[in-house]
From TrEMBL:
It holds the Pfam family AcetylCoA_hyd_C. It is found in: Cytoplasm. It comes from Desulforamulus reducens (strain ATCC BAA-1160 / DSM 100696 / MI-1). GO terms for biological process: acetate metabolic process; acetyl-CoA metabolic process; butyrate metabolic process. It catalyses: butanoate + acetyl-CoA = butanoyl-CoA + acetate. CoA binds at residues 219-223, 319, 342. The lineage of its organism: Bacteria, Bacillati, Bacillota, Clostridia, Eubacteriales. The keyword Glycoprotein does not apply. This is Probable butyrate:acetyl-CoA coenzyme A-transferase. Its EC number is 2.8.3.-. The keyword Cytoplasm applies.
């Protein structure tokens, strides 16, 4: 340990000193999720007058507007980009202060290896252990592959960042680090999305289809959270967790005795995820917990690995769906909302799992600002909307009006099934539109 301690002292610098390595035109990575750097962001912002065309990547900002944007709202010195947009990123996109980096999440580590230039890679880490390792905490994702690609590696040590075990690629050794900065900041607390009665109704269609020994993936939002809570209150046994995002509802599932992982075929007994966000309860749960195994996203989200477990249940939200079964989950028309994420990954992986099921869930309607009620099931996606899940991949679709399986169905059968779970006020018009598009038979149900 003494040699590591000496090396630590040699590499320990202030944030202001560390960012001096950044030059005009450089590509910088800030880290991802709750591991984005804070003091280094502030120090870089202070160099606004010295730098031009510095390009900064991050993912799903959860701790306030970046200081570089506050210092440079005209984006003359810094350009900010996100692999997946949070609410903060979305507002910045609306102001042309953040630009989305399209990707399928499982490909991100390989994209860093093949397609991304990284001059300086930064990330938050937990304090160094006696073996000289810093842990990435709740954000495995593509962190190690990003740092491997970087010409210069800077870690921001935060005593509040949980030490989360792997898996693999969950940590970095001090010998791979160029500069160490210390900055303690509270972990961002992300409250669980409120659960509505509509969410509970949708969950009531899904939970009866989950069997003992299933492996669970939950997406972001109130509806997946409602399913997790319903699972916690059920009598299901020996569930496993192999998920993209680890959320509070999953902690509830474990503490209720629903999760053992004993029936998993890979990572038996382990909770597998690639990133996590939530309450302090979640951060305390994952810290140094041998039940946890974080993996890079090209393992966690790779459909072939997902499918190795039996009875995989994938539950994700969408924004809208057309009568062909195409799902949009990342934009409202051309306005960017979030990102592709892992919905496609888990949709494919769950379906190829033995007895697996992939659910896409959403409320049947939304209300515009002027009070107009709109259907989320549409003849065709809104102009500019991005297709997140291909019509051939879509499996189960769930609204408050029921659940339908689109696999193995023709275009007219898909249209008929989707109209059956649309809001009743829109069904007649949807039938007329389906007829115009030649995806409705005269003998179809009316």
């Amino acid at each position: 340990m003494s040699s590591y301690a000496d090396e630590y002292k040699r590499k320990l610098v202030s944030a202001d000193e560390a960012v001096k390595v950044i030059k005009s035109g450089d590509w910088i990575d800030y880290g991802q999720f709750a591991g984005q750097v804070i003091s280094l962001d502030k120090a870089l912002a202070a160099r606004k007058e010295e730098l031009k065309d510095v390009k900064v990547r991050a993912m799903m900002r959860v701790s306030g507007m970046p200081e570089i944007i506050k210092a440079d709202p005209e984006a003359e010195s810094f350009s900010f980009m996100s692999w997946h947009c949070s609410g903060i990123d979305r507002k910045l996109c609306d102001q042309n202060l953040c630009h989305y980096l399209p990707m399928t999440f499982r490909e991100l580590p390989v994209m860093y290896e093949r397609d991304c230039h990284v001059d300086v890679g930064m990330t938050q880490v937990s304090p160094m252990d006696e073996h000289g390792y810093f842990y990435f905490g709740l954000q495995n994702s593509a962190t190690k592959r990003m740092l491997d690609k970087a010409k210069v590696v800077i870690v921001e040590v935060n005593k509040n960042q949980p030490k989360v075990f792997g898996g693999n690629e969950e940590c970095i050794h001090i010998s791979e680090v160029d500069y160490i900065v210390e900055h303690d900041s509270p972990m961002p607390l992300i409250p669980s999305a409120p659960i509505s009665e509509l969410d509970k109704k949708i969950a009531s269609y899904i939970v009866p289809l989950i069997e003992d020994g299933s492996t669970i993936q939950l997406g972001v939002g109130g509806m997946p959270n409602a399913v997790g809570n319903a699972i916690a209150q059920s009598d299901l046994k020996d569930l496993g967790i192999h998920t993209e995002m680890f959320v509070d509802a999953m902690v509830d599932m474990v503490e209720a005795g629903r999760v053992t992982g004993k029936k998993k075929n890979i990572d038996k007994g382990k909770i597998v995820f690639t990133f996590g966000l939530g309450s302090q309860k979640l951060y305390d749960f994952v810290h140094a917990n041998p039940m946890i195994a974080t993996y890079p996203v090209d393992y966690c989200n790779y459909p072939n690995y997902i499918a190795m477990n039996d009875k995989v249940i994938a539950i994700n939200n969408i924004i809208e769906m057309d009568l062909f079964g195409q799902a949009c989950s990342e934009s409202a028309g051309p306005r960017h909302i979030s990102g592709t994420g892992g919905q496609l990954d888990f949709g494919e992986g769950a379906y190829f799992s033995k007895d697996g099921k992939a659910f896409l869930c959403f409320s049947s309607t939304f209300t515009k600002k002027d009070g107009t009620l709109m259907s989320r099931i549409r003849p065709m996606l809104t102009e500019g909307a991005v297709v997140t899940t291909h019509r051939a991949v879509t499996n189960y679709v769930v609204t408050e009006y029921g659940i339908v399986n689109l696999k193995g169905r023709s275009t007219w059968e898909k249209a008929e099934a989707l109209i059956s779970v649309a809001h009743p006020d829109f069904r007649d018009q949807l039938i007329k539109e389906a007829q115009k598009m030649n995806i409705w038979r005269k003998s179809n149900k009316k």
